[in-house]
């Protein structure tokens, strides 16, 4: 196991992710972790970057046992300065020039010196591209250290201790902007620390199930909302495998779901995955509250968000009452959330004795009002890792690869008022589009696709008759992070086929358009 001590850099979790990609098991703990309190001995320690300057009065510092354990240590950015600070507290100065972005790093090799020194940059070019993001830099080398890398702005971009396996680098090897960063991390973890390379997703499952069991105890009960999306499905499956029927999944049918969506989710959850699922059909309630809301997308979102919380809470209360009545049951005290790492906006806090984690929640504000404790089994993972995990757990392919679907559902894809008739049109058109995308083998290439219903009417001619009916706008985008996106380039023949089918098969539509706006300036959803 490699221990990653986190100083709060936005990239800290990428370090553990890269190690996982190398099949090396790692644990990330707050930088103030006392080494004596660990129940295991790490094979090596990585100190992350962080937003502080080591010479500030309130700057965090690691337990000095880190340097006395006799295992290799790699400091990244702030971690480099922390190493220098440990050896010589006056060493680090504020850099006159902040440095962000790509930088050319030159490697300095030392054939005549101790063997470990050159190992960090083994198999790496002498002139590598690396990502920098720092204000401070070393003003001179601490005693007993040698320079192993330098840039035009940072003469000590990489340092190594002449005798101990102790290294510091100013750049970030964990980001993809440092193409050879993974080789460097492999050099450190595998060649220098000799960590085992036997970590797999299967091991993650074992560890997470054990953690959930320990957390929840013999009788504890967990509740969670599921939508059929990959995150909530995978989180629910993991929970089912950990505590069985003491996990209560709730599917709120808002009436704003896609064609057959509620049925498909029900079937998968209860039949294929054996999840204890309660379905609440709240379509009428949602629709009645959305009545008359025509041109205020934010109002739609608010109504849907609040109604969702209300319906979920009511169901949770009922389930809790039933659970309390059963002999082995305690009250429900846990809420499952499928939060992923990119949703976690604040890293582990090292201030105060208990590490707290603040997250951003998809389903607006559920936990705060419900007095439940959070369980977030996916919080260390990225989307693609969740898919691998889903496969490992036996979640059906169609759920593992499902495009994201927004909480407010079709309501933000029906521009203008949401009525049963508008829902029917949007649903049918969307179904044709997605079916054709699947038939053409394009579903996995596209990040998200849907049909929106525009609130305008256009003229058409159908069966020798003039018609005046609505317009569908198709949208399909490619993106990795959903922050920026490009419209997908379909073949014209494909779009014509979809257009033909929609106009012919969906009553009330006479035209189909394709939205080619990228994000920005557009957003992925229409509202
Ligand atoms: P935008 O439209 O902001 O969408 O480019 C980015 C991603 O977020 C999803 N999205 C939402 N998801 N509730 C959700 O759960 C929402 O209110 C919401 N709005 C947008 C959208 O589907 C896309 O994947």
Automatic annotation (TrEMBL):
CDD domains: GATase1_GMP_Synthase, GMP_synthase_C
UniProt-recorded Gene Ontology molecular function terms: ATP binding; GMP synthase activity
Residue sites binding ATP per the record: 227-233
Intracellular or extracellular location(s): Cytoplasm, Cytosol
Keyword annotations: ATP-binding, Glutamine amidotransferase, GMP biosynthesis, Ligase, Nucleotide-binding, Purine biosynthesis
Annotated EC: 6.3.5.2
GO-annotated cellular components: cytosol
Protein name, UniProt field: GMP synthase [glutamine-hydrolyzing]
Organism name: Viridothelium virens
Lineage: Eukaryota, Fungi, Dikarya, Ascomycota, Pezizomycotina
